[in-house]
Specification:
By secondary structure, this protein is an alpha/beta fold. It has helices at residues 57-60, 69-81, 111-119, 135-142, 166-176, 191-201, 212-217, 219-229, 256-271, 290-310, 334-340, and strands at 28-29, 33-39, 89-97, 101-110, 149-155, 181-186, 209-211, 231-232, 240-246, 278-284, 318-325, 342-347. The chain folds into two domains: 28-232, von Willebrand factor, type A domain (Rossmann fold, 3-Layer(aba) Sandwich), CATH 3.40.50.410; 240-347, 60s Ribosomal Protein L30, Chain: A (2-Layer Sandwich), CATH 3.30.1330. Helices cover 34% and strands 21% of the residues. A hairpin with a 3-residue loop joins strand 3 (89-97) and strand 4. The longest helix is centred in the C-terminal third of the chain and has 21 residues, at 290-310. It is globular and about 60 Å long.
Length: 349
């Protein structure tokens, strides 16, 4: 099961990259622009079940004791914004759909300014059970962005009752923004709502999904989603993930693309504590035998460790593990399977 992952789109097989200019480094901004759009339909005004068990009560407390799904959606955006360097400028924006509103204009602002603006925002759930994409929402998703954009869609999945198929709405987004990517933050609670979000994730291989409950239960999952797609502070003392060292099908060989990523990993290591431990996780797609894939994932992790040792990283700092078959990306497409064939490195583990 794919647990502690994030997407570094840079250099991963050259497909579905958010921004080649930004992704040239593993640290800092992960995209040229980051937008958040929140489902504000009536169902988002309902309560949301918190997880029964959490890994760290202190980290779970960061989410607060919100009363509705919509409140948790807003808290996710606020927490994500806090990851951005306060003095660094990024193109950021916030909108809602069902009903549609441009809450914060998409423009260049510092991380501090974005957080301050978010603290003054109050979004209310619709009092009408329309659950349909209005013209403003269709225009919002169809708009051609000036920069490759990471778009977070935060929803409970109860958005398929109207005349517009939400999957086709996202298809239009990708048609007009082929270098951008949508990531889904789920507040779904019923099987039908979860199925809608699964369909949305499958629109494009680059998409990932995380539930608010899972991110509350394990703060590392929140960090993986945000550091992989918004901003990664490599000099932070917190645990850090670098994901996406690519491998070709059934292979344990480091090709030029993998080595290029690993050379950037060495730059990250130089910014981290000298005695910090690292967990190296090897993954595969779901094709073939599960037991074989478990071994293959472990072999890939060992190859990455050996390369880092050859570059001067102490052997005792690194542990390896075979994660086996990854479901982070959609295994029903070859593009998704390519992204699942990778190694991730977790610093501080």
């Amino acid at each position: 099961m794919d647990k502690r992952l994030s997407l570094v789109c840079s250099l991963v097989l050259g497909v579905f990259c958010v921004s080649s200019s930004v992704a040239a480094s593993l640290c800092g901004a992960r995209a040229a622009a980051v937008e958040f759009t929140i489902d504000a339909s009536s169902s988002m005004g309902e309560s949301y079940a918190r997880p029964q068990f959490v890994n760290d009560e202190k980290e779970a407390a960061l989410w607060g004791n919100q009363s509705t799904k919509l409140a948790y959606a807003q808290q996710f955006v606020k927490m994500a914004a806090e990851k951005i360097n306060p003095t660094e400028e990024m193109v950021t924006g916030l909108a809602t759909f069902m009903p549609s509103s441009q809450v914060l204009k998409t423009q260049k602002r510092t991380g501090e300014a974005f957080s301050k603006s978010l603290s003054e925002v109050k979004i209310s759930a619709s009092t009408q059970s329309l659950n349909n994409f209005d013209k403003k929402a269709l225009d919002y998703f169809a708009r051609k962005r000036k920069e490759p954009t990471t778009l977070f869609v935060i929803t409970d999945g109860d958005i398929d009752k109207g005349s517009h198929d939400p999957a086709k709405v996202l298809q239009t987004f990708y048609q007009n923004n082929p270098k951008s990517c949508v990531h889904l933050i789920s507040l779904a609670q019923t099987d039908s709502e979860k199925e809608v979000i699964t369909r949305l994730r499958r629109v494009n291989a680059c998409s990932t999904m995380a539930t608010v409950a899972d991110m509350m239960a394990d703060h590392q999952k929140f960090n993986a989603m945000v550091e992989g797609n918004v901003y990664r502070n490599c000099s932070s003392q917190e645990d850090l993930e670098v994901a996406g060292i690519p491998f070709v099908k059934k292979s344990t060989t480091l090709d030029k693309k993998a080595i290029a990523v690993l050379d950037q990993v060495m730059e990250v290591i130089a910014q981290r504590p000298k005695d910090e431990s690292m967990l190296i996780l090897g993954w595969t797609d779901t094709e073939g035998d599960a037991a074989f894939n478990k071994r293959l994932g472990l072999q890939r992790a060992k190859v990455v460790k050996d390369y880092l040792v050859s570059k001067g990283v102490e052997d005792h700092r690194m542990a390896v593990m075979g994660g086996g078959e990854s479901e982070k990306f959609d295994n029903t497409t070859e593009a998704g399977r390519k992204l699942n064939r990778r190694v991730d490195i977790i610093f501080g583990q």
